[in-house]
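We recall that each integer encodes one residue's backbone shape. We quote one record:
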Amino acid sequence: AGGLRAAGLLLWQFVLQCRGLYDPVHHIESARIYGNIDSYAYYYMDLLIGMPPQRVSVIIDTGSGVTAFPCRSCPHCGHHIDPNFDFSKSSSASWTSCGTGCHGSCGGGHCSYRQGYTEGSSISGWYFTDDVRMGDALQRNPPVRVSM
């Protein structure tokens, strides 16, 4: 028990020294990765989206260029670890409009996407821009403006 307590204290000192694991000198962010390829068949991580931040968990998918998570307005998105993202509660969010900045198709005045996967599933939605931080509040990563 004493060894575990000492290891815990060393980790806590490291976290405090690194100001939550973000390295502002080298601009290196870090985040916890959860999951198990054998048990779950995927890995996932947390993102903090918007202002005020809303936590969403996203699957780390090397085969897709889409960062996708369920939004509150989705009636068929199922149950997830976190509440569905509420676009209306983020003061920093903005829709990606149709036109030159749209890399998908236009639907309902918003730039939309559809991503199909080899096993037959698919996901669709609308692109938007918002402030994103990797990980949770412990990592203290700075927000970056991201189009997703």
